[in-house]
Specification:
This protein has 266 residues and is mainly β. The chain has one domain. It contains four helices and 14 strands. Strands 1, 3, 6, 7, 11, 13 and 14 form a seven-stranded antiparallel sheet that branches. Strands 2, 4, 5, 8, 9, 10 and 12 form a seven-stranded antiparallel sheet that branches. The longest helix has 9 residues. The termini are far apart.
């Protein structure tokens, strides 16, 4: 360490400059988020469950925590082409390890375009905690039965991977279509040795995150269960044990009828 030459302060590899696809028109997107809207569908996920749904381009998807701290693992596909799906690692490079209002969730190659844009985040205040933790995690991925077997030798079929798989089967997808997630409401970070950790979820009753669908999308959410592979880990105490997550899909109300929203209509 003493022999290493000083290293200048790093510059982000991808900077959201004016006019960049990484930069949204904040005024237009805020106008969309605040416009009158009509609830098209709403449902609740209990613990250890998953559900998938479609939402048209221009609709707003609101995921909330009606009973306080909850965590969910979210997958996203183009509704017409499941090969176009959310790319967590590229989104992490383009924006940050943890995302918030006006960040976009990008699809993979060769499509490389936003699937959704975050238009509201009631936990944006959280910032960085004293341990370096932040909320809405792109560092980690879904829990799954395979690593559970590797680490504990046990069998358990209600991991987020399993829940997401069951959720998308009615849409003609399989386990092979389930991909890396955004862990919404999850606080995570890396410790001084670069190891992944989780801190308590700060969500309270009524907290939410809202996405504007940039494409017709298929989304699937798993209500995160405690991971049996981590039951002896101190991290596991930070996983909510019970409660609900509510999903609402909204369209815009204008002149007596409903329509989806878009920046051009803001």
């Amino acid at each position: 360490m003493q022999d290493r030459k000083p290293i200048p302060a790093p510059v982000p590899a991808y900077l959201a400059t004016a006019g960049s696809p990484l930069t949204v028109d904040a005024a237009a997107y805020s106008s969309i988020q605040q416009a009158p809207r009509v609830l098209v569908e709403e449902f609740t996920l209990p613990i250890r469950s998953g559900r998938a749904w479609t939402a048209p381009a221009g609709s707003i998807i609101r995921i909330s925590t009606p009973q306080g701290p909850q965590v969910g693992d979210l997958n996203i596909w183009n509704a017409h082409n499941p090969r176009e799906r959310f790319w967590a690692s590229r989104t992490r490079q383009l924006h940050a390890t943890h995302v918030s209002t006006h960040d976009r969730l990008w699809s993979g190659l060769p499509y490389m375009r936003p699937l959704v844009t975050i238009v509201s985040d009631s936990l944006a205040w959280y910032g960085e905690d004293e341990h370096g933790g932040r909320v809405h995690d792109l560092l980690g991925t879904r829990c799954d039965p395979y690593i559970n077997t590797v680490l504990s030798g046990g069998q358990y079929d209600f991991h987020c991977h399993s829940n997401l798989t069951r959720a998308v089967l009615p849409f003609g997808l399989t386990e092979f279509d389930v991909h890396d997630v955004i862990n919404i409401f999850q606080v995570t970070g890396l410790d001084a040795k670069g190891r992944y950790f989780m801190n308590p979820c700060p969500a309270e009753s009524g907290d939410h995150i809202e996405f504007l669908a940039e494409q017709d999308v298929l989304m699937a959410l798993s209500k995160l269960p405690p991971d049996p592979a981590r039951t002896k880990s101190d991290n596991d105490r930070h996983l909510p044990r019970r409660g609900l997550v509510t999903v609402g899909i909204w369209c815009r109300q204008r002149e007596g009828h409903d329509q989806v929203l878009s920046p051009s209509q803001g």
